[in-house]
Design a protein that fits this description.
By secondary structure, this protein is mostly beta strands. A four-stranded antiparallel β-sheet has the order 1-2-3-4, with no helix packed on it. Strands 5-6-7-8 form a four-stranded antiparallel β-sheet, with no helix packed on it. Strands 9-10-11-12 form a four-stranded antiparallel β-sheet, with no helix packed on it. The chain is globular, with a radius of gyration of 20 Å. It starts with 12 loop residues before the first strand and ends in a 5-residue tail after the last strand.
Length: 333
């Protein structure tokens, strides 16, 4: 790809417009490590072609330096972005500047840290999750359930349901929002009624809430919800060693210390309210992988290898030679 006109960042949000992709936000991890405001406010549009493609710099978000984009989306020809400190803003491609939207009904201070999920339903922008008023304080977290209607330019409040959990995942089916909480399983939201409905219990409901490196992938195939990866069992495995230490040639990991045992993925059939296991594939257990549905397969890339990961120390084993990306096609063994 052609070199981008913006600096590198982690946790950027990338939205397909129909002919290109808009890159919004992200964080400068060096700044985060040094406890400096880490948010990136530069925005760019990538247009693919038969060659390297081309980039176009879009107007920066007019927010205080270092503000982190908590949620964004591509909605009917416009980019929408939200952060607790500054509210929601909108940009149409070709416009010279961002426009503020009406203030959402959410009372949190500017120092709030957000863990939210956003999606465009075709008529409303949903932002659901939780914010912490100040990471250095003991103030309680605030649940976030917002729905913005661009035609009426109004906000409605919704129950965020399972999306207040740590490392929960969400996906829009075209009619319902499915939310997966590693501790509580899968539920669906009807945006018209604002009501959540729990699905049948599934084989991944015991994943556990704790995962220091991110949760499982959640994707929609057109008929089913796919859930893949994520840590299991709710244990902090950072200092858990199944042997005499990582330098011991007889070191063996697994058992109670290994976050990998158990089923890696499962598919939920929305029409029949049933679950089935899916093939493990060429990877070990991972968290926080990127995932894109291609129309007939799920493309998975990257993530954190939870069999090799040990917090605060290098992996005890050499990297495995598996590919960094894989393609899963439902219906195959």
């Amino acid at each position: 790809m052609a070199a981008a006109p913006v600096e590198a960042r982690s946790f950027a949000q990338f939205w397909w417009t129909g002919s290109g992709a808009v890159l919004v936000g992200g964080q400068d991890l060096w700044a985060a490590c040094e406890s400096r405001p880490a948010g990136r406010l530069d925005v760019a549009l990538f247009t693919p072609d038969d060659g390297a493609g081309s980039w176009q710099r879009l107007p920066d978000l007019p927010w205080p330096a270092g503000t982190t984009v908590a949620a964004s989306t591509w909605a009917a020809g416009r980019v929408l972005a939200w952060a607790p400190a500054v509210g929601a803003w909108s940009l149409g491609l070709g416009e010279p500047a961002w426009t503020p939207l009406p203030a959402p009904p959410l009372d949190v201070p500017g120092t709030a840290v957000a863990d939210v999920h956003g999606c465009w339903t075709g008529s409303r922008w949903l932002v659901l999750g939780r914010v912490w008023p100040d990471p250095r304080s003991t103030a309680p977290a605030v649940d976030v359930g917002l729905a913005y209607d661009p035609l009426r330019t109004t906000w409605d409040e919704l129950d965020p349901g399972p999306l207040t959990g740590t490392h929960a995942g969400a996906v829009w089916s075209g009619t319902r929002l499915f939310g997966f909480d590693p501790a509580e399983g899968l539920s669906s939201l009807d945006p018209g009624t604002g009501r959540w409905t729990a699905t049948a219990p599934g084989p991944l409901d015991d994943l556990g809430a704790y995962s220091p490196d991110g949760g499982p992938v959640v994707a929609w195939t057109g008929t089913s919800v796919l859930v893949w990866g994520g840590a299991r069992g709710g244990r902090d495995t950072g200092m858990c060693i199944d042997g005499n230490g990582p330098d011991d040639p007889a070191f063996a990991y697994g058992g109670e210390c290994n976050p990998a045992p158990g089923l890696l993925g499962a598919a939920y059939d929305a029409a029949n309210d049933t679950w089935r296991p899916i093939a493990d594939g060429p990877w070990q257990r991972r968290a926080a992988s990127a995932a894109v549905w291609t129309g007939d397969s799920l493309f998975l890339a990257g993530g954190v290898d939870l069999e090799e990961q040990r917090t605060g120390r290098p992996p005890p084993f050499p990297d495995h030679p598996e590919a960094a990306a894989a393609l899963f096609t439902p219906g195959r063994a």
